[in-house]
Specification:
This protein is an alpha/beta fold. Helix content is 26%, strand content 27%. Strand 12 (185-189) and strand 13 (192-196) form a beta hairpin. The structure holds ligand PMT. Residues 32-37, 74, 93-97, 99, 124, 126-128, 142-145, 157, 169, 171, 177-179, 202 line the site of ligand PMT. Keywords: Decarboxylase, Flavoprotein, FMN, Ligase, Lyase, Magnesium, Metal-binding, Multifunctional enzyme. Residues 11-223 are annotated as: Phosphopantothenate--cysteine ligase. Its cofactor is Mg(2+); FMN.
């Protein structure tokens, strides 16, 4: 039954947005609420998995019955994800991770001076790519938040980051993407589109995604 689809499996989910500090009271972040990642964590738990969520900044509560690890920056999320990776069967990277962080994190609050302030940013390490490089037995699922040419960029990410699947959402579409309770997901594998889900609640989308992942991670065909 559905309740046992992921029995005995260890699932790692990242959720929410990272926070990249500028100074003790300011940071760069994004609109991720954590809803998508939490819905995935909850769906996996309901299917019998042992679930760990690494969460950044979120605006809703984490589901019950899952282990929660709180982080702030992309760097901290990377550390936790790589530490837990070897013990995971399925990894879902639904977090919105900063691509850039401030080069300098000021010890004190940055003072106002002059009309302009130039902020220098540097690339963060790509967590998904790092996990892709170290992939052994894990079934690795990345997300792709796109605004155009969704399929092309999703397939490009899948290959570049050595994922098993990429779940794309067109974050410019009405009812999809950041913060809301609904999403429009398309699941891509190495041979292209596996399933395009219509607009639905993040909970329902997460349940379908994990149902597909449970079967595929055992080497089966989706039904
Ligand atoms: O949290 P919600 O409000 O419910 O919103 C859900 C969501 C829109 C955040 C979610 O559905 C989503 O699309 N998450 C991925 C957002 C994102 O960062 O996409 P991306 O295309 O920039 O990154 C692609 C993948 O690489 C993602 O799996 C991301 O976690 C990963 N990444 C990106 C940068 C980085 N430094 N490390 C990463 O691992």
């Amino acid at each position: 039954s559905r309740k046992e689809l992921l029995a005995g499996k260890r699932v790692l989910v990242t959720a929410g947005g990272t926070m990249e500090r500028l100074d003790p009271v300011r940071y760069l972040t994004n609109d991720s609420s954590g809803k998508m990642g939490f819905a995935i964590a909850e769906a996996a738990r309901m299917m019998g998995a042992e679930v760990t969520v690494i969460k950044g900044r979120t605006s809703v509560a984490a589901p019950a019955g899952v282990r929660v690890i709180q982080v702030e920056s992309a760097e901290q999320m990377l550390e936790q994800a790589t530490a837990l990776y070897s013990n995971c069967d399925i990894v879902v990277k639904a977090a919105a991770v900063a691509d850039y962080r401030p080069v300098v994190v000021a010890d004190q609050k940055i003072k106002k001076k002059g009309d302009r302030l130039l902020l220098e940013l540097e690339r963060t390490t790509d967590i998904l790519e790092t996990l892709g490089e170290r992939k052994e037995h894990q079934f690795l699922i990345g997300f792709a938040a796109e605004t155009d040419q969704v399929e092309r960029y999703a397939m490009d990410k899948l290959r570049r980051k050595n994922c098993d699947w990429i779940v794309a959402n067109d974050v410019s579409a009405e009812g999809a993407g950041f913060d809301g309770d609904t999403n429009i997901l398309s699941v891509y594998g190495p041979d292209g589109l596996i399933e395009a889900l219509p607009l639905m609640s993040k909970r329902s989308a997460a349940a379908r995604l994990m149902e597909l992942a449970a079967v595929a991670s055992r080497g089966g065909e989706p039904e």
